[in-house]
Amino acid sequence: MSIKRIGLLTSGGDAPGMNAAIRAITLKCINAGWDVIGIEAGYNGLFSLSSRPLTHQDVDNIIQRGGTILKTARCQTLKEDNGSELAAQQLDKLAIDALIVIGGDGSFRGATQINKFWPKPIIGIPGTIDNDINGTDQTIGFWTAIETALSCIDKIRDTADAFERIFVVEVMGRDCGFIAMESGIACAAEQIICKEIIENESDFLSKLYSSIQHAVTWQQTQSYVIVVAENALSISAQTLAQNIQSNTGVDTKSAILGYVQRGGAPVAMDRVLATQLGIAAVDALVQGKSGVMIGTLNNTLVEIPLADTGLKNTANQALIKRLKQFNFDLTD
Ligand SMILES: Nc1ncnc2c1ncn2[C@@H]1O[C@H](COP(=O)(O)OP(=O)(O)OP(=O)(O)O)[C@@H](O)[C@H]1O
Ligand SMILES: O=P(O)(O)OC[C@H]1O[C@](O)(CO)[C@@H](O)[C@@H]1O
């Protein structure tokens, strides 16, 4: 089948660098003589047929912008019973010959479903701050989110130090600890808490309280920063802070960094990664590939079946190993 019109959408949480990928895909397709149709607000744009052709001008001066010029969304309709069949019909209405989806593993689950009713090429590009995708070392947006988290935690460290307080800082990641781990290592957090390392929560917390007590009593720690991944514990960051204070007697505050981690100009790493993956996605279409995500493993471009992009247990093992490497907690 000869490709003339590419559909392009961003889906799931926006991630800094998505615009860089949109730019690379658009320019590469235009060079190949293909039209690029930007589908707006993720899969929602398919159902509402909200789309527009993307031109050189549309992708000028966007590489440094956070968010996504195509908008994004979480689309309930696609998950419903006839959702993927309907999506396939909508793609035909738009006369799309091939689809590129920039998003997370959920977006790729959606793409896999659509492919069952729409037997045309679909290529995925990993775009999520969480880095929770199997088959790629990095996702677009991950390093920018870490830089953002890091600059916030460094500021929290200043006030924690001035008051000799303990701080519990919650970072994003959905159910996965990669943002907590990397930002925690980079800000020299005294503790990094991720779901992956907790076998029994109450044992874990008892150990945490005694570890903090030891640090403030014997190491005369001036400030103590705990980076916790969202959803790592059954209690909120605020409750954890209250519990630490009542167990240790040390003034303890909490801060939830939240959506600030999704915004801002992408760091160089994300711009370069997004550009590289965007070009490779179009190359994959030229080569007749379909049903794969383009990722990077050990700095090499790889293709992973979209159906295999859900996080595997090996990611947990890798995270645990890395955390142990960087753990300076002397009581451990
Ligand atoms: N099992 C599924 N079947 C059909 N569509 C799905 C499925 N899972 C997810 N999707 C579609 O993909 C969209 C995005 O998925 P999700 O909300 O999980 O985000 P994501 O792509 O994993 O990105 P992020 O990691 O940034 O949250 C969903 O809103 C839905 O439209
Ligand atoms: O924007 P929403 O739908 O509230 O999603 C928040 C989730 O999206 C992410 O920012 C990206 O997946 C997660 O870290 C977070 O749990």
UniProtKB/TrEMBL annotation:
Keywords: ATP-binding, Cytoplasm, Glycolysis, Kinase, Magnesium, Metal-binding, Nucleotide-binding, Transferase. One of its GO terms (biological process) is fructose 1,6-bisphosphate metabolic process. Pathway: Carbohydrate degradation; glycolysis; D-glyceraldehyde 3-phosphate and glycerone phosphate from D-glucose: step 3/4. Gene3D superfamilies: 3.40.50.450, Phosphofructokinase domain. Residues 5-285 form the Phosphofructokinase domain. It holds the Pfam family PFK. This is 6-phosphofructokinase. It comes from Pseudoalteromonas ulvae.
